[in-house]
Design a protein that fits this description.
Order of helices and strands: EHEHEHEHEHEEHEHE
Structural class: alpha/beta
Strand order of the largest sheet: 3-2-1-4-5-6-9
Oligomer: single chain
CATH topology: Rossmann fold
Number of strands: 9
Strand content: 5-15%
Number of domains: 1
Bound molecules: nicotinamide-adenine-dinucleotide
Radius of gyration: 17 Å
Helix content: 40-55%
Largest sheet: 7 strands, parallel
Number of helices: 7
CATH superfamily: NAD(P)-binding Rossmann-like Domain
Shape: globular
Distance between the termini: 39 Å
Amino acid sequence: MAGKLDGKVAVITGGASGIGRACAELYAEEGANIVIADLQEGNGAVAAVQERGREAVFIATDTSEEGSCENLAALAIEKFGAIDVLVAAAGIGHAGATSDVADDSSAMLLVNQPLSSWQRVIDVNLNGVMLSDRAIGRRMIEAGNGGVIINIASIMAKVPQVGVGPYCVSKAGVWMLTKIMAMELAPYDIRVNAIGPGFIDTPMTAGLNVSETGRWAMAITPMRRMGTAEEVASTALFLASDDASFYTGALLHPHGGVFTD
Ligand SMILES: NC(=O)c1ccc[n+]([C@@H]2O[C@H](COP(=O)([O-])OP(=O)(O)OC[C@H]3O[C@@H](n4cnc5c(N)ncnc54)[C@H](O)[C@@H]3O)[C@@H](O)[C@H]2O)c1
């Protein structure tokens, strides 16, 4: 049976883990070859794509660095000849932390945080998405074959939460960035959309279940459970495929019913 992404090439930032990796696996099942771009090694993700019968390459990338994103775009073209889809999933919960679990101690308040903590989150989550979008968007424009860009935002683009201020602001920025990029790239048949997941079970949210924040998260999630990375990947597959051919500038929410509007 034909896959929804047969013959396509997808670059996935943050593809080594969590939501990015689930996208890589699902896209490969649907026929795409995959570039895994991540700060951490991506051997597991590359092997998972290959097990599904598709080609994969890992390119070490720091999306917060302009030169690194340009290098990613150039190497991806060198390897596969074209880029059809970008999923910009690389992100961090807060500076210097591996967990997204909010900490409402006074040290995490915006009024008390060191500027460097704010800057790191904005650098990765907002500047990194912009740099990835434009490095790959330029290549798509040059190739003239259209394309799809999917930015991973969050419900936190719309739901403010004390303790993760920089994260919320960065994701709100990704949502506006997505709308602007959609307008800029529409004339080139490049669709740009965002996904704003709710609480998803990934390494970023390890520990959420047992925290005060975790109880709050379930209280605002009518379905009373965390989502899976696969449930976000299926949204990313829809947006990447021709099923979403009239979607651009949209923000889709796999979030179990969290009230965001
Ligand atoms: N897990 C959730 O509940 C949730 C909810 C909403 C949005 N998101 C967003 O989804 C995206 C993926 O998160 P996840 O939950 O899969 O977390 P994750 O920690 O499993 O994956 C994030 C990946 O991004 C990579 N990364 C971090 N900084 C990078 C950089 N500068 N350059 C390149 N790669 C970098 C990490 O190495 C990691 O592999 C993030 O943007 C996150 O903000 C997650």
